[in-house]
Each structure stands twice: as structure tokens, then as C-alpha cells.
Amino acid sequence: MSGALPLKDLLRGLRSGMTAGRVAIDPLSRELHGPLRGVVDGLDIIASRLEATTSRLAHSIFDEGETLQKGHFWTLQALATHPSGPTVFAQLAYGVLGAAYKRFSDRPVLVSETLAAQTFQTAMAATYQDRTELPAEMLLQLKSARVIRYAPFALPSAPKDRSAILAYTAFVILLCIDRDAESEHTDLLDLCCDTAPLIVRKFGFHPDERSAIRTAIADCARLI
Amino acid sequence: MTLPAPQLLTAPDTQVRRAVRRLRWFRRAFLEQIAVVSEDSGIAFDVDTIRLAEAFVEWSAAFESRKPTAQHDKRRYVDHVSGLMLDRLLRKAPLSARHHENVENPDSAAQFWPEGYACVVFCLNVRAAVLAQDFGETVEDAPQMNNLRDWMSFRDSVAERPEIAISYLQHFAGLEPDWQFPDLFRTSPRTPQPQLTLVHPSERHTGPAPRQSLPADFAMAVFDLDAISNSRELVAEALTHVLGLYGYALTDDLIDQPLAASMTYVAMRSGQLCPRGFIDHFRNAIAKIFADQLQLAPSARATLARLTTQGVKVLIAVNDDKASGPDLAKLLDIDGLAELCGTVEPEQVDKKDKTSLWVSTDSTRLQSAERCGFHALGIKVPARRMPEYPGETIASLSDFPFPSR
Hints:
Oligomer: heterodimer
Strand content of chain A: under 5%
Number of helices of chain B: 17
Number of strands of chain B: 8
Largest interface: A-B, 17 and 17 residues
Mean pLDDT of chain B: 84
Distance between the termini of chain B: 73 Å
């Protein structure tokens, strides 16, 4: 796992906190007068500078390289054999889980790349004897680690946050589907988000449902 | 009536039969179809893509579970699965017409029921594309689409019996649908597949061991229904159909189990404790399938007749609760040859101290009969996943050991 991941999470958290802080004090800065107004303006300036700095820093270390290259598709199978599997998985999780969550909820969230990479490693270790179990294991681990966090302070999402569970499910399905000529005209993540409720409605995501979840994910991926 | 079709459905480089089985193409084609209908009718639609995906997934499961194996059934199956597609679309209702009030005097099907019309047009266009590409048939129009009275009864009927959509799609396409059992896809009548292997005279004495233990003077013979007819195969067909309604495929394990096992199977997977209507669906299906296809196995009639002539009392035991219900004696036309004795186990049959014989293809049942004092005779069924009966066995009814009188 790349050592930059915790730093990325930290910077994203700071940036998100700064943005939230600026939004919070905005009405005050308009309504207050006199010395108090000066204090609030000062806070706003500090927040703006910090936000700008963290954004710059974050961009400078966020090497998304081949991960998000246009036209390059990752599957769980490919990630499982890639030397940088956990880091690539984490970068994908950051982009995909954030977008998928937006399909189901307006709540602002942060996706922890550190937790995503750890999840990948845990799921890999748990399925080293049988990689066909990887998708179901990955889904259970993503849910259990609560990789999606609530902005601005990256608090763990609620264990039963349905939107988060739907997003994890859509993400895992996306990593299991094959690509063809039709994929170029299709937002595959959108299709995965459409089918995720079929799985989420059916299961309580207990570990003993692993085998049934595996089949359900495979069925969805095959049909997409 | 010529139907408005999107370009995607008429693209020559896409094999629609294959493409329509993937959600990525199905959704794109559906959305393009809705855009075309919208432009044509002036009615705007909202599409719930999650419901659309649900409809697609359910349709796919139904498609798979009923897919016929015989080549000559495939053309008719296109008509059936197009109707199934309409059925699932109307059940999941992914479409809603925007700002559309019920029109007092509609002058078109699109005005009368925009959502139903759009779904029908889509299914008919998919059907037409598959027929053109795979069967060389040109379907230029839908002859029954303009009759508003049909549309009124269509909408009312679907509200009461959603599966009737399958029949209506065929009606709109100008076919003669099955209004009674819309969701039943019947394979074409075929040459009966003998459950009992025909043995040529020259082979007769090379197979089973010579008879040793059977008495030469038995006075009663009980035949399991499966041993003298194609009932097991038909029960499997009915189960396949009914499980398909719930989106599941038949497994070998369920065929020889009581009907309750199939219900439990559905319940455990669907979370529905008692799948509503399961038994009704099954009874309807088995009645229909038996009425069309139940028949005696080769040599069965001659065997029953000869035994009766020899003064042997012949009973036919319905060995599976799934086969009980239809009037089997009438369907098999065995009046005077044998008596039916309902769903029975060997211990339920009163032998009246007569030397009696039990004939079956099921080794467990034969062993049970032996425990009840019957002499047991097995009939070999090739390719059946069942332990072979270790006792006396014949290859077919042609080898039946008639009593010496």
C-alpha cells in the first residue's frame, strides 16, 4: 500500500473541513459589524489560505496516472494480480464510490483511500485459496470498514447507510463486468447503480451469505 | 400500423437476439424507443432506470428458465419472450407519462395509455428485429394496434391478471394467443420419449438377470405411474414453468421430491414464506400439460391388457403428489384395463393376502414395497440420476414376466 494514502485522506479531510468552515462563517461575516466582523474576516482568510494550500498539496501528490486513464478498465481479477493492486483499488474506490454515492444521496461524503487499500488487502488475504470469493468478500469488507465517510470531518458512515451499501455494491459489480464495443456508449457505473438495489434488497450482508452474494454479483455482472 | 422504431433496433451490425440480453444495450434501446415514441406522440416520459433494470433482470431469469432446447420451438419462443418482456415491463412500470391526464375521447392508443403503448411498441420492435435477423421474416406492421377497444380491455385485464400482457402482445402482433395460460410456453408435440428402453428381441436376454424370485402366479400388480407413462417428464416441465415464474430454474433434486420441496426452495430464495399462488400455478400448468401430452409408455397398454386378461388385478399408483389432480384414467384411456389408486405408498395398498407385485422405476419405492410384502420389479431408466434397484429388474415393459396361466 502506498504511504501517500493516509496523507491524501488527511489533506482531503482538511480541505473538506476548511470548505465547511468557510460556508459556516459566511452568514456571520455578512451580518456582524465592528471588531467581531474583523475577527470573522480574519478566520475566513485563514480558512481560504489553508484550503488553497491543502488543495495544491493534494493535487501535487495525487498521481492518478494509469488508474483513471480514459479507456482503461480495471477488473477485480486484474487488480488481484497487479503489484500495485491495493493502491490502484484505493484510487478507483475514491472516484467510483464518491460518484455512486451521489446517485443515491445528496449527503457530502469523503472516501478514505487508506481504508479502501486496507480493505483490498484484507479481502485478498481472506480469499487467497479461492479468488472466486473475492467480489463478495470485498463487498462485505467495504461495508464493514465503512470506507465511505461523512464530510466534513470524515466520520464513519452509519453502518446501515443504505446509500453507502448501494455504492459499495455498484462498485464491486463494476469491477466484475466485462467490456465490449457497447461499453463505449454506456455509463457502466450508472447501470451498476441501477442493479445494485436488486442485491441490497435481497441480502442482510451477513458473512454466511457470502456464497449467495457471490452468485448475485456474478449474475448482475453477466447481465450488464 | 407501422410502429415508430429507433435506429438502434434497425442497425444491421447488431445481432439483436444477443444484444437484448445485456442491460447495457437493452436500456439504450429502450430509452431510444421512448424518445422516438415521445417525438411521434408529443407525450413526454420519465424513466425510472432502476425499475427498468429490475424488469430486465426478471425478464432475463424467465427467459433462461423457459428456453426450449428443440430447434423447432425457437421461432415460437421469440413470440413468447417478447410477451414476457412486456409483462415484466408493465409489472415494474419504469415509465410515467409527464403531464398526461386521462383523455376523454382518445383517438390513439398512445393517448389512451401512453406507458402501455410505449412498452408494447418497444417489445414488438425487438420481436420484429429478431425475426428479421434470425428467421428472415419481415414484420412490417402490427395489424391489431389501432383498435382502441382492444386497448381498453388490455389495460383492464392487465390490472387484474398481469401475465395476460403476454397474450395481448401476441394479439397486437396478429397472432392467435393462448388467453387461458398466457405464461405457459408449450413445446411442440413431439415423438414420445420412451421412459422405458425399447429392447430388440435379439438383445432381450443379454441385459437383466434371468427371473428367479418372482412368483409365477401373482394376482395383483401395482404399477407406478412413472413406470408406465411419461408423467415424470411432464411434471418436470410443469415445475420448470412454475419455478420460472418466480425466476428460478429447476434442479434435478426437486423433480422427485414432493411439491412442498419446490415451494420451500422458492421460499428460501425469495424470502416469501409461502409463495402465493405457487400451488395454483402448478395445478394449472400440470392440468394443461397432462391434457396435451400425457401418454402411456410403449408396450404399457399391451402389458396392462394381457395382465387383465390373465385375471391379474392391475392398479396404477400415482407415485408423486405433483401428478395427482388431473383425471388420469381418462387422459390415459385405461378404463377396464387398470384402476387408479391416487397418491399412495406401498403400505397403503391392501393386498388382501394375494401374491402381489410392485413395478417401479424408483429403487427406494421398490425397497419400501418389499418391506410391505410385495414382490418388487424394477424397470431400468437410462440417464436417471437415481441409485439402481439391486433386485430383479427388466429393461422395458416388453420384458414383463407375465404369470404362467
